[in-house]
Amino acid sequence: MLDLYYWPTPNGHKITIFLEEAGIDYRIHPVDISAGDQFKPEFLALSPNNRMPAIVDHNPDDGGEPISVFESGAILIYLADKTGRFLPTETRARKTALEWLMWQMGGLGPMAGQNHHFVQYAPERIPYAMDRYVNETNRLYGVLNKRLEGRDWIADEYSIADMAAYPWIRPHERQLQNLDDFPHLKRWFERMQSRPAVITAYAKAAPWTDRPAVTEEGKKLLFGQKAQN
């Protein structure tokens, strides 16, 4: 049994997709990030950056005490290595899957996240910021579209690279992107969307998805953090 500290964000969905694909038993512990659950001491002990998701593996391969892992990319690699699935072991193929995982972690996720912020949540409509991140999201969609030309999956075989990228493409309309402009990406997206494990992963989010919009107090928690000395 594995404990997943989770909220239905793109980074949270990455992990439920993997767990459903691999058939791992897990318990969801919701971390309501608009209510400040991410600042509770028991969560910070697992995720010192006060970001979800995090996991606790009660059956680590070394047979020792439970292992906690934070950061969604690190969690995907940990789970792939633990199960021997969705991350190639051959040197060149593994390299490629990890390249595209890091592309998502360092590019698609942060840029789409800023897109969400300035388009959806910012108290002021700042045209420069909106254009900057909508355009950069568009550029990254183009990179992925080109990569997927002639391929079914990002790293040739279905892998954690696909699991990482899909949840950030799913809200494409909120990001002011049109998938019809990216035919190879659209074909991949539809293939991902129809996978039973992906369908189940998103269904697991239902108890926490249909909630009121983020309150002003919630926005202060999410967007107004500074260092705590």
Automatic annotation (TrEMBL):
Residue runs in coiled coils: none
Annotated GST C-terminal domain residues = 90-213
InterPro entries annotated for this entry?
Glutathione-S-Trfase_C-like, Glutathione-S-Trfase_C_sf, Glutathione_S-Trfase, Glutathione_S-Trfase_N, GST_C, Thioredoxin-like_sf
Do you know which PROSITE patterns this protein is assigned to?
GST_CTER (PS50405), GST_NTER (PS50404)
Which Gene3D superfamilies does this UniProt record tie to the protein?
Answer: 1.20.1050.10, Glutaredoxin (3.40.30.10)
Q: Where is the GST N-terminal domain?
A: 1-87
Read off the SUPFAM superfamilies from this record: GST C-terminal domain-like (SSF47616), Thioredoxin-like (SSF52833)
Q: Name one Pfam family in it.
A: GST_N
What the record says about family reads: Belongs to the GST superfamily.
- Name used for this protein in its record: Thiol:disulfide oxidoreductase
Organism listed in the record: Marinobacterium aestuarii
Organism lineage string: Bacteria, Pseudomonadati, Pseudomonadota, Gammaproteobacteria, Oceanospirillales
